[in-house]
């Protein structure tokens, strides 16, 4: 028996209709039909445009009558639609006055801001022979995925080891050995590798629908194409990227991504999404109409008094994040990914933009950031901010947190890079970095995991390139080497009189040094995919457009650099095995009277901040871990700290095979090397494979 409110009350060109439910926004399957709801505060009229999948022309254009509008929301139910064969969009009419921020154009068919699936780029990089790209259309998602009992893992923040990767870049290279390279399905095939390495969270570069053909151009050699590879240019915030799915051409990208999340969870690995709410793919005043611009430009974007776009993102426009409507959309979006995709956390690109008001000025207590911090659905999700933007705001250490937000620690990256390459005057900063950066994050107010530590990320040099190039090598991007950061704190490791073999050996040792510092620092470590086996991008520090072997991981490096992989794996195992490496929540001395973390020099308990040597002791009730770092260009003798009765130092790892430890508390550290010593009362922890 049908409910009374499920009967059609209107008809248009043979389609049965009735007034819709205003909430939720988007296209929602209801009894007998689909509820369409869209917001626009300035549109004078709206029509729903229906297409059969893949067809250029619509089969129906249905105006929203006055009965189908409440406030600023247009809503109707359309009955008897074939969900799988239907694409839809909206046509909005209203004022066209750019000086007032209005861009309405009734000739444009617009993507639903709440679309759960978007078609038009269903196969990655597929361009028709005539070069005409199919318009992007909204689609209807039938949510029938079987999660098989999956629940979010809720791994404590201090226990995470994050692996940042690009879905396509991880497996697109022929050496990856997967069935469907460059897809969510292919990442599933790499789960055993991730487990062996020991990481327990993957941070995926953007997986929201974007257009890889945005600003595409032929490569410099004329043999390839430069695409929007990274995807930091969102088309639809609720829709997974079809071109990253092996089943995208079948419209099954949502299920494929959910299957990946489910299988990662089964293996103890959380999923963090890199989300881009600071701007959209519509660009500046010369950009295309896709969705927001034609639906309600003045609501969705930050505009100058004369109607131009503020550009705090560096990408042409800036989303008006603290407008209540936009703020609610972002909240709806993240709740959707947390509840419907079981996502464990989010990293917010250029997050400082999320704290600007409608005139672009920084807010002391941004409503959006506060709402995210206290949202009940997101209550156990990780919230990670890239605490700066392209408009000059830099908030590392001062990002509004409410005890919930953590930050990419850009200061950690810069200070550790300088220390590793032997710069003077930075040893104290390196010591702070290894303690969780208390000089940046007051432990009393920000907790012990405010700092997400990284030395490299997708944006910049890889770890091997950091020690192979003094300057960026970005000519292949077609921008005359102007793009990408110039201040990289890198070093090519070329010493006077050194042979090629000696230079290569030094580079590998420097990579191990960096891995040691990163993976044994307090805070939350983030490892860039491929750094654990020496991945190189040929010195390109901005591979945003390099959908080719420059931007892909070459899995042959895993065999060529197996020693680096084994070294990284042992470091991660050490971190997991010893709680003293993961938590600095207390300053209370251990049961043996040692501080939880202490800084030393070549002599125990005597820190020396003026040179290039450093040692950090992490102490627990049942274990001690001592990290010794000699970044000097000469060998240096260190003395290890004394231990309580029943404990004995053991050399666990050393970046240089010539590290000598006879067992008497004295250790000779070769130049530019690190070593890790452990002590436990009974059994000595030995990382697998040591």
Automatic annotation (TrEMBL):
<feature type="domain" description="Glycosyl hydrolase family 13 catalytic">
    <location>
        <begin position="171"/>
        <end position="575"/>
    </location>
</feature>
<dbReference type="InterPro" id="IPR017853">
    <property type="entry name" value="GH"/>
</dbReference>
<dbReference type="Pfam" id="PF02922">
    <property type="entry name" value="CBM_48"/>
</dbReference>
<dbReference type="InterPro" id="IPR014756">
    <property type="entry name" value="Ig_E-set"/>
</dbReference>
<protein>
    <submittedName>
        <fullName>Glycogen debranching enzyme GlgX</fullName>
    </submittedName>
</protein>
<dbReference type="InterPro" id="IPR013780">
    <property type="entry name" value="Glyco_hydro_b"/>
</dbReference>
<dbReference type="Pfam" id="PF00128">
    <property type="entry name" value="Alpha-amylase"/>
</dbReference>
<dbReference type="InterPro" id="IPR006047">
    <property type="entry name" value="GH13_cat_dom"/>
</dbReference>
<dbReference type="InterPro" id="IPR013783">
    <property type="entry name" value="Ig-like_fold"/>
</dbReference>
<dbReference type="GO" id="GO:0005975">
    <property type="term" value="P:carbohydrate metabolic process"/>
</dbReference>
<comment type="similarity">
    <text>Belongs to the glycosyl hydrolase 13 family.</text>
</comment>
<dbReference type="InterPro" id="IPR004193">
    <property type="entry name" value="Glyco_hydro_13_N"/>
</dbReference>
<dbReference type="GO" id="GO:0004553">
    <property type="term" value="F:hydrolase activity, hydrolyzing O-glycosyl compounds"/>
</dbReference>
